[in-house]
Every structure is written in C-alpha cells, then in structure tokens.
C-alpha cells in the first residue's frame, strides 16, 4: 500500500481540490456501474492510495478522501464542516449566565443548497428508500434536470462545495476561526502571519492530519535509492522507477495571499513531525490574483509576496510546482477550450484535470515483479517521482507543468511532432523553446485514441512517444512515461468549457459539431484523453529570476520602497539577505555560468 495524504489550503486550492475529488468519485461510480463503459471497469487504479475506509456509528461502511482542507470560516456554503456521513450533535447552549451585562445574538441565514446539491440529496434519499415498481420516464426527467443543473452551476457557483459530489470525513474540513470569507483583505503574505499560531488552530490542523497519517502503514518509512541518469537513457515507463511501498503528501496551496503563510507554518510542523515524508507542493494562483493590483504600491506588494512566499514554501517541500496563468482562457493550453478567466469554477477544473493525470502513476495497481499490464504502465510513487526530477546532478526542485486537454490521437500525418507540440504550460513566467540538455521529465498519457478511433494500447502509446523523441531536434536527458487506457471522466458538475471541436469522448474533430453551440459541457462530452508532464527544466529560469530581482529591488537595496512592508510581515534584513542568497543558489543550480548578483532595475 502506498498511502497518500492530501492537503488543500486556501480558496483556489479547494476549488481545484473539489474538481479533483469529483474525478475520483466519478471513477469509483463508473467502475461499479454494470451498464457503464468497459474502459472504466478495468481502470487498474488502487484508489486506497487516496481514500480511507471507515464506519459510521450505525455500522455503515464509508470510503472518504484522506484529506485535510483548510479555508476561511463561511467558505463551505451549505455544507457542514462535519460532512454528511456521520452524525453530529451540536453543543447545547448553556443556560448558566456569567456576564451580567446585556447580550445580543447575531445569526446569519444558512446558505441554501443549489439545484445540484438538492439533486444529490434527493438521489441519496431514493437510494435509502425501498423501490416499489418501475419508475417510467425516469430517464427523461433526469435529462431535463441535468440540463437545469448544468445551467445553474454555470451562473451560480460561489463556493467550492457548490459543485462537490463527494462525501468528506468530519476530520477533513477545517475552517479558520476569526477569518470570514473576504479574499481582498487576505491578499498578501503578511495577512496570514500568526494565523496558524493563533489559539489552538495550528494544533487542531496538525491533529487532523495526524488522524489520517497514523492509520497509514508506510507513510513515514521513506528510504529509496534512485539510479543515476545519464545521457542517452531510454525513454521508458520503468527505467528503475518501479513502484515501491513508499508514500508522501500532495499539498495544494492558494499562493495568492495570506494562505501562503498559513501553509508555510503548517509545512514547518509537518517537517518536524514527519521528517522523512516527501511533500509534492502545488502552488496555485487563480487569474483573479493578477488583476487586483492597480497602483504601483499594490504591484510592489504583489511582487514581494511572490518572492518571499516562493522562497519559504519551496524550502519546506521536496518538489515545488507553480501553477496558474494570468489568462488561461487566452493561452495555447486552451486551444480546444472556451474558458471564462473570471470564473474560478472554470479555471480550477482545467488545472484539476492536469493534477489528476499527474497523480495517476501514484495509484496504478501493481501486480508483483511485472508491474505493467495491458491497462496501465509506468507506476511510480511520490518519492520516486521526486527523486527522478530532483535527485540528479542538477538537483533543481522547481518543476513546470504542461498539459494537453484533450490530448490528440495517435494517428494522422506528423503525429510524433503534433504530440510534443500539443503540450502547453500551466506554469507562469517560463521561457519558451529552451534547449536544455539536462532536462528530466515525467509524462503521463491516458485514454489516448489510436488507429480506427479506438483506445490506443499501452504499447501503441509508448511506441508513438518514443518515435516523437527519436525524430525531435532536442530531447530530454531522461523521460519517464506512464500510460493508462482509462480516460478522464467528465462528471455532471464539470463546467461547460469545451469547444465544438471536441467530441463526446474527447476526440478532436475536423469540423465543428453540427448544431452544437460552444461551450460544450458534461452532457455533451463524457470523457477526454489527457496528457500531462512535470519537467525539471531551465525554462523555469525567468520565474526564479523575477522573484530574486524583485526581492533585491524592493526589499534589500538601499532605500528600497518595500523595506517597511516586509518588516511588517516579520522579515528582518538579515533574513531577507539569506532568502536572496537561497534564490541565487537555485538560479545557479540551473545555470552555473549565470551571474545573478546584479541588483539593477
């Protein structure tokens, strides 16, 4: 067993997490559907890696994500922080009066369930009640209801729980005391200082994680010897990276404001308590984090936030992956998508799709010494992935994320070149068309179409990727390939973001769907093939240089305009100089010939 704990901190992180868990829930449902697509019945994915089994007080078995979610108080909408599976008796108000003065009680109206959540509740009630006779016309009614649900979600998502179809354990959902939902007042690193240490909040968050970790078999035994990679190594799904009984934590943090500091404090405690546990950190920012900075001072505060947040978070994990483009809907990554950047509901769905793909190798079922099958290939655990990308001579801990959504088929002219060209970055501020002879990558492809419009076999995908790199002008030092036949399922609450060039199963069409009006959603597109790649590459150079340059310009240089701001965030001058030195070393790791000591501008 290779258990994996997941932590989501902040608003946009939980939006992404909500979509991520919807994918997992959909896979579980399709696997058990007797009338479902056979491709989902033979997933060969071990969902116990992400989920835990439990039991309610009534003896009912439960299967819930091994998750700790942290957010503002009031960010759960109509969902209770205790979930819905387990009975919770709220504390009875005491009638003992200890305050002699006047008292007043302020109650806010509870949020009403939207149409989607109402339908989930009704469906659960129907499943609990005995079925008498045959309900004729049920399918027609469901179709009309589904259309109404999709329309209501497109116009009315406010909370990440509005589109969540997953049951959570009572230990999973944590709301910060005293912090009500107001992102604009929590928009920089300094606003999160002392939040973790306030009262018992830090210990309560630690206790929730401890609940999930202590029931895992191997999450703390993490010793792994990785092979050295040399130039010319075969691009392979195994190549020394077969899955072993090692585990870790995938941590998603909304890095656009005060939650960066909350997450860093949480990570410090995790590092102290689980010394050898590898942490894969996704630092995510929604498009809205790029548009609120109108004045020069606001822009400076944002630049300093990005610098100090990145420096601290990256020092507390084994692999750091920045995610979030300023205009995802206008990027090359959205060639077959119709996104509204102002909607976190839209953008988070796309990023969650890529994270689902990247995490597939962590839960590919193994079958003894020969870990591959006709359904999956290239299983690897979190520790193996981290060692692969960071444990070589260069030891760069910052990776880029690329994806193709949907991924193209493996047929047609110049298929090899089109495959490599279909992967576009989700990581901001990176260089394009970089030739890096030390580049190392982990590529996951699942649900791809082959000849005749059928799902491609594992070997067909592997042969196509090998051919693509064989004919490429430049190729990575090493590429680990993971392949699965199972595509990405599109759940009902997934947003309508596909263009009319995307078919029902994610196939890319030569001409628009007849009578189809974009965007298309879950009623039109049921699944899609995906490709996603994590890459240790010098393309991340501008991302690092920008953070170092801004820290020196606004926080360290004589008379810098941001010195007082950083001091108010708790940073002393010597600490900032240490931070700058660390960033400089990270840049030198990518290019030893670079002189990064210039503090001009």
Short description:
The chain is α/β, with parallel strands linked by helices and 601 residues long. Helix content is 32%, strand content 14%. Helix 7 crosses helix 12 and helix 12 runs antiparallel to helix 14.
3D architecture notes:
With 601 residues, the protein is an alpha/beta fold. Helix content is 32%, strand content 14%. It has 14 helices and 16 strands. Strands 5-4-1-6-7-8 form a six-stranded parallel sheet, with helices on both faces. It has a six-stranded mixed sheet with strand order 9-13-12-16-10-11, sandwiched between helices. Helix 1 (11-31) packs across helix 8 (344-359). Residues 131-144, 220-245 and 596-601 have low confidence and may be disordered.
